UniProtKB/TrEMBL annotation:
Chemical reaction(s) catalysed: Release of N-terminal proline from a peptide
Superkingdom of source: Bacteria
Cellular compartments annotated: Cytoplasm
Protein EC: 3.4.11.5
Pfam families in the cross-refs: Abhydrolase_1
Protein name: Proline iminopeptidase
Record's keyword annotation contains Hydrolase: yes
Length: 308
């Protein structure tokens, strides 16, 4: 199903789970990623009416990779436009990684519409969080060879953030489609290294390149603009959602969004229940994270029923 919004964007959305269940908005990560039906199975579909949508320029939303009017405030407005379109008064908002950033920003903007928050591997979007993942003084010290390969692939000079190189290359009209795909692949390889996933390989089929290019365009656009937030990311304004029930699932070994950041959220949100997952990192391919998220979704559903 599709929902036209502003600046020519058309959002793709789909519903899963119990049609009469508690509404739950699934906010995907990235920026630039997309939703997959299998993800809904992790959020207690027996009790929730799960609504997934692809953000502007992402997945099956159109136009793919478009950066026009593509910023954080617009995404928040899109989320509430979808709520109104579906005739939902209140819902739970789930978000993982960048999706957690948007979930928190949405809750701050529309606290009366949020029944509860379910967050996984929350990205606080502070300048220090982004530098940890992208600059040489952060997680790059643990993977020096992979980081050097990334810098070389993007032509990054010493001291510069590689994401700016990716952004400039992808927005350069002189960059060919194959070159753009190779630049996107270089960043994917860096992410996979940090998350300890298999390194992606070059696919010679040109019809497969566009999705990777679109994802990298949106991703680098948001990163280069500091996610259209202040240097303190999501932390300012959290007092507006102090009374919203929340469960925060986070892998202790997360090297993308550090576990220590969750402690700041727990401190700021008295109704937040923290679930620390031993021997787990950031990726939802990890079984222990999947199990913890399933349990958290079930718990949140149980806790909300008396409030309805």
């Amino acid at each position: 199903m599709n929902l036209p919004v502003t600046q020519g964007h058309v959002l793709h959305y789909a519903e899963f789970g119990h049609p009469m269940g508690i509404p739950l908005l699934f906010v995907h990560g990235g920026p630039g990623s997309s939703c997959h039906p299998a993800q809904a199975k992790l959020l207690y579909p027996e009790g929730f009416r799960i609504i997934q949508f692809d953000q502007r320029g992402c997945g099956q939303s159109t136009p793919g990779g478009s950066l026009l009017g593509n910023h954080t405030a617009a995404l928040i407005q899109d989320m509430d436009a979808l709520r109104l379109h579906l005739g939902i008064a209140q819902w739970v908002v789930y978000g993982g990684s960048w999706g957690a950033t948007l979930a928190l920003e949405y809750a701050k903007r529309y606290p009366q519409q949020v029944l509860g928050l379910l967050l996984r591997g929350a990205f606080l979007a502070r300048q220090e969080d982004w530098e940890w993942f992208s600059m040489p003084h952060g997680v790059a010290q643990q993977f020096p060879a992979a980081y050097q390969a990334l810098r070389q692939a993007l032509g990054t000079v010493d001291g510069a953030n590689p994401i700016h190189g990716l952004y400039q290359q992808l927005l350069n009209p002189q960059t060919t489609q194959e070159a753009a795909y190779r630049y996107a692949l270089a960043w994917d390889a860096w992410e996979c290294t940090v998350m300890r996933l298999a390194t992606p390989t070059f696919n010679p089929d040109p019809t497969s390149w566009q999705r990777s290019i679109h994802r990298a365009r949106v991703y680098s656009h948001y990163c280069a603009q500091q996610f259209f937030l202040s240097p303190q990311g999501v932390l300012p304004g959290l007092e507006a959602i102090r009374d919203i029930p929340a469960i925060l699932v986070h892998g202790i070994n997360d090297q993308v969004c550090r576990y220590a950041s969750t402690l700041l959220l727990v401190e700021a949100l008295p109704q937040c229940q923290q679930v620390a997952v031993e021997q787990a990192g950031h990726g939802m391919h990890e079984i222990t994270l999947q199990q913890a998220l399933q349990q958290a979704a079930t718990t949140l559903h149980t806790n909300l029923l008396p409030r309805l």
